[in-house]
Write a structure and sequence with these properties.
Layout (H helix, E strand, L loop, with lengths): L1 H11 L3 H8 L5 H8 L6 H7 L4 H8 L6 E3 L3 H36 L6 H21 L17 E3 L11 H7 L8 E3 L8 H10 L5 E3 L8 H10 L5 E3 L8 H10 L5 E3 L23 E3 L7 H8 L7 E3 L9 H10 L5 E3 L7 H10 L5 E3 L10 H7 L5 E3 L8 H8 L6 E3 L20 H4 L6 E3 L7 H10 L5 E3 L8 H10 L5 E3 L8 H7 L6 E3 L1
Parallel strand pairs: 1-2, 2-3, 3-4, 4-5, 5-6, 6-7, 7-8, 8-9, 9-10, 10-11, 11-12, 12-13, 13-14, 14-15, 15-16
Helix pairs in contact: 3-5, 8-9, 9-10, 10-11, 12-13, 13-14, 14-15, 16-18, 18-19
Length: about 525
């Protein structure tokens, strides 16, 4: 008897398999969307849930629950737009249908009786009628009051192909369906107009980051809508927005007190000098990008000295060119910089040394086109122990000593020498290979770009000696590259995963065919 009871108890219990395959699968999609939204930051967990059954797989692989929506193809974006439009229409129709059925059933239940006698006479008959009405009516489904795009926080159209197919109407129809947007990237979406920004700011009241780089059609009207409706804005990128004027930007800065990142690169009307009157409202900035913004030493002094919290600063391609005076200002007022671009400036080795001593937290520096820095790179690396990325592109010459100090470095992970000339090492001692595998393992460089670089086979051999951890190598248009050197690189660099070798005319066709079948390394010729 006890066994029978136990068997009954066990059979009446709901197992995990029953829940996964049955009960939870019967939940309306609106509820499942809300449940899965709590896992939207964990792709691994979502993929595991997607393997339970087809219902879960469909919901998880749909657009509904992803907080970041990034597109590479126009067709995908168009499908996303169509689905949200269809959901909005279905949502409205279902709500009307649910209410009409609810009201109809309610009216049938509460029919007003004529008298007490009639109520008693028809009580039984009325119950039958109501039962018939409700049993044949479809159940009122749970319907979420939130939009399906409610969970989307970030919209990124920066990498989408054929951006010209994205119309103003498509964008304007999209924003009401994703009202909780916080981060929008319209990089080079030149179809974005003032009307699009007006609709965006009207529908999405939580905007914090707006990247409008390359939206050349935008005018001061767009900044007006942003300042009026996006007071919590923290990031604004108006690079290449050539029509916007300083007055509109100043008005926005006066209202948006929480700005921490500002980009005015390539703004012909809003140049660096226009920031001087508004610098008192920019003291909370942590990122300032003024690439090709007609910056000078004097402008740098008037702006940078008033913004002590800067972490990232881009002063590339200044006009007139920056000198060592600018480096003195930067090192004195920006000790917490982690990102610095001084490309195509006139700084010398002394200025570079000043930067190294004053900005010891640097992780990234761009010295492309700074042809006066001479042979200071090795000393600079010792001043900045955290430096991970260095750009030395378009330099007339880089000493062999500087080149070796970078590829041997225990800190640099990414170095670029595009279109630069690298001299050979003068000392025969420096040409010796590492004495042990431990010494060879000290180099941390993982990505090395040498495209269109003038470099000798001796320097290329040094790469194979020292760069044990190298994973990516770009040697496009390196004319001294031949079959022997390339084979040596492949044999010695055991961690190499990808090689870009376009237009390497010294490499034979037979060698290219042979390496294209390489099992470990992916080659692009």
């Amino acid at each position: 008897m006890e066994v029978t009871n136990n068997e009954r108890d066990i059979s009446s219990c709901t197992t995990a398999a029953d829940i996964n395959g049955g009960a939870l699968s019967l939940l309306p999609p609106e509820i499942l969307v809300n449940i899965f939204s709590f896992f939207s930051d964990s792709v691994k967990d979502l993929l595991l849930c997607a393997q339970v059954n087809q219902t879960w797989h469909h919901i998880i692989t749909s657009f509904y629950i992803w907080r970041t929506v990034k597109f590479n193809k126009f067709e995908t974006f168009s499908r996303f737009h169509e689905i949200l439009q269809l959901i909005t229409k279905t949502r409205r129709n279902r709500a009307l249908d649910n209410w009409s059925r609810f009201v109809k059933a309610y009216l049938n239940v509460i029919k007003s009786p004529i008298s007490r006698t009639s109520e008693e006479e028809y009580e039984e008959e009325e119950e039958k009628d109501v039962g018939a009405q409700i049993s044949f009516t479809k159940p009122t489904y749970f319907y979420s009051t939130k939009f399906y795009g409610y969970f989307v926080k970030k919209l990124d159209l920066s990498r989408i192909h054929r951006k010209n197919l994205i119309t103003e109407e498509m964008l304007r129809d999209l924003f009401p369906n994703i009202p909780n947007l916080e981060n929008v990237n319209f990089y080079n979406c030149y179809t974005v107009t003032d009307r699009v920004i007006e609709k965006l700011t009207k529908s999405c009241h939580h905007l914090k980051k707006l990247k409008l780089f390359g939206c050349t059609s935008l005018t001061n009207r767009s900044l007006y809508w942003i300042e009026m409706r996006c007071s919590k804005l923290t990031t604004l990128n108006i690079g290449f927005c050539v029509i916007i004027t300083p007055n509109a930007l100043q008005s926005l800065v006066n209202r948006c007190k929480e700005l921490t990142s500002l980009t005015i690169s390539h703004c012909l009307n809003t140049r660096a000098i226009s920031l001087i009157p508004m610098v008192k409202n920019l003291q909370g900035l942590r990122k300032l990008y003024m690439y090709s913004s007609f910056t000078s030493d004097l402008i740098v002094k008037n702006i940078i000295s008033q913004i002590p919290s800067l972490r990232k600063l881009d002063l590339g391609i200044s006009n007139p060119k920056l000198t060592d005076e600018a480096t003195n200002i930067i090192s004195r007022h920006c000790p917490n910089l982690v990102y610095l671009s001084l490309s195509f400036s006139l700084i010398t080795r002394l200025g570079l040394r000043t930067i190294g001593r004053g900005c010891r937290k640097l992780l990234f520096i761009d010295l492309s086109g700074c042809y006066l820095i001479d042979d200071e790179i090795s000393d600079f690396l010792s001043y900045c122990p955290r430096l991970k990325i260095i750009y030395l592109n378009y330099l007339l010459q880089i000493s062999g000593k500087s080149f070796l100090s970078i590829i041997k470095s225990s800190q640099i992970e990414y170095a670029s020498f595009t279109s630069s000339k690298i001299l050979e090492v003068s000392s025969s001692i420096d040409l010796l290979p590492p004495s042990s595998n431990e010494e060879r393992s000290c180099s941390k460089i993982r990505k090395l770009v040498l495209d269109n670089c003038e470099i000798s086979d001796k320097n290329l051999k040094q790469i194979s000696y020292w760069c044990k951890n190298l994973e990516y190598l770009d040697i496009s248009l390196v004319y001294d590259m031949d079959d022997r050197v390339l084979q040596d690189l492949c044999d010695r660099l055991e961690n190499l995963k990808e090689v870009i070798a376009k237009n390497c005319y010294g490499v034979s066709v037979a060698m290219q065919d042979n390496l294209s079948k390489h099992q470990r390394i992916k080659f692009t010729f």
